[in-house]
Amino acid sequence: MFVNSVLAESNSLYIGDLVFYIVTFIILMLLVKHFAWGPVTDMMKKRADKIASDIDNAARSREHAEKMAAKRQAELQNSRQEAADIVSNAKKSAETQRAQIVEAAQNDAQALKQQAQQDADQARRDALNGAKDDVANLSIEIASKLIQKELKADDQKELIDSYIEGLVNHES
Amino acid sequence: MGGDALTFKLFGLTFNTTNIVSGLIIYAIVFFTLYGMSRKIKMKPTGAQNVFEWLVDFTNGIVRSQMPTAEQGRYSFFAFVLFVFIFFANQFGLIFQFHWNGAEVLRSPTADPVVTLTFSLMVMALAHFAGVAHNGLGGYLKNYTKPFTLMLPVNIIEEFANFLTLGLRIFGNIFAGELLMSLIANMAFSHGALTIIPGLLLELAWQGFSVFIGSIQAYVFVTLTTVYISRKVSE
């Protein structure tokens, strides 16, 4: 009775349609799954995976970049330190070299000065000695010249006699 | 609407030519639409692929809101095809209604109770099968005595009521929509120019409304499908 009232529009219960729709709907599902749903959902899944892996990769590469930046920073710091060290070392060695040079120069100067002093003293002494000899020679020469000039037999007779006399006196 | 249905007999079964022809056309439309939308599948979606993926997300969303996570993947494809097919079937009768020798040749298959009850039967069969597969026969039968044993007759009646309402709801909506459409069309041509203008406007308004009804009914049908299945598998 119920079936008749519901299906009044259709006049008869066509079970064939039921079978037809069940079979064709299953065929449609198979076709859609193979040609449309499968590829698209595959791609959606692949995309989801790709996005997830991209996010992971991005995080990883960011970490890497941060590490590299820190490393660079440390290296820069080191090289700055090194440069400062090099400069200060150079300054220090220059300082010591300067001191050494100055000291050596002073020593040389001192030695030269002493040498000069000694040389001057020697020269003075030599000159003094030379002058003494010269004076002696000169005086001897002068004396000999004077003596030659005065020493004439007559003139000196008295003197010689006195000498001889004196000698005799002395002997006696 | 109305008139004798064109029927033919094959293997001792009665077939309704209207439903067969309309159904085949809709199957073709559904398949080639989905086929065409999924041709150039790219990692970065463009054009039709976006529409397809939006549709997939839409039906997946219906399933996701009703089912436990473990069961979703199994039924989302069924929900997708069911939704697309019923949507196209509902809209089909709004565009094509052919009469030939006093009988209809083309109309929405969902305006026929046999077709809608077929889909309802399919859904209920799937739901009960899933219930047995998921809980075992004992667990499945035990669900009829929940929350207490006295509810047994109510629960059994409910299963039949679910089956009938699922199919007849969509039949009623679409059938009424198409019936009113032909009534308005008859009225429009009844008194010449006097009725043709208001008739045209009425028809336009009703067609627009029917598009809305057809979409809502497709959505409701798929939502209830997932509800019935999830009730069987989650208890």
UniProtKB/TrEMBL annotation, chain A:
InterPro entries named in the record: ATP_synth_B-like_membr_sf, ATP_synth_b/b'su_bac/chlpt, ATP_synth_F0_bsu_bac, ATP_synthase_B_chain
Principal location listed in the UniProt entry: membrane
Pfam family, one: ATP-synt_B
Gene3D superfamilies associated with the record: 6.10.250.1580
Top-rank taxon: Bacteria
TM region positions: 18-37
Positions in coiled-coil regions: 62-126
GO molecular function, one term: proton-transporting ATPase activity, rotational mechanism
PANTHER family in alphabetical order: ATP SYNTHASE SUBUNIT B, ATP SYNTHASE SUBUNIT B', CHLOROPLASTIC
Function as written in the Swiss-Prot or TrEMBL entry: F(1)F(0) ATP synthase produces ATP from ADP in the presence of a proton or sodium gradient. F-type ATPases consist of two structural domains, F(1) containing the extramembraneous catalytic core and F(0) containing the membrane proton channel, linked together by a central stalk and a peripheral stalk. During catalysis, ATP synthesis in the catalytic domain of F(1) is coupled via a rotary mechanism of the central stalk subunits to proton translocation.
The protein's name in its UniProt record: ATP synthase subunit b
Organism: Limosilactobacillus pontis
Lineage, broadest ranks: Bacteria, Bacillati, Bacillota, Bacilli, Lactobacillales
Gene: atpF
Automatic annotation (TrEMBL), chain B:
Keyword Chloroplast annotated: no
GO annotation terms (biological process): proton motive force-driven plasma membrane ATP synthesis
Gene Ontology molecular-function annotations: proton-transporting ATP synthase activity, rotational mechanism
Subcellular location(s) of the protein: Cell membrane; Membrane
Main location: membrane
Keyword field: ATP synthesis, Cell membrane, CF(0), Hydrogen ion transport, Ion transport, Membrane, Transmembrane, Transmembrane helix, Transport
Listed SUPFAM superfamilies: F1F0 ATP synthase subunit A
Matching Pfam families: ATP-synt_A (PF00119)
CDD domains reported for this sequence: ATP-synt_Fo_a_6
Segments traversing the membrane: 20-37, 75-99, 119-141, 179-202, 208-229
InterPro entries in alphabetical order: ATP_syn_F0_a_bact/chloroplast, ATP_synth_F0_asu, F0_ATP_A_sf
Entry similarity comment: Belongs to the ATPase A chain family.
Protein function: Key component of the proton channel; it plays a direct role in the translocation of protons across the membrane.
PANTHER family: ATP SYNTHASE SUBUNIT A, CHLOROPLASTIC (PTHR42823:SF3)
NCBIfam families (alphabetical): ATP_synt_6_or_A, PRK05815.1-4
Protein name per its UniProtKB record: ATP synthase subunit a
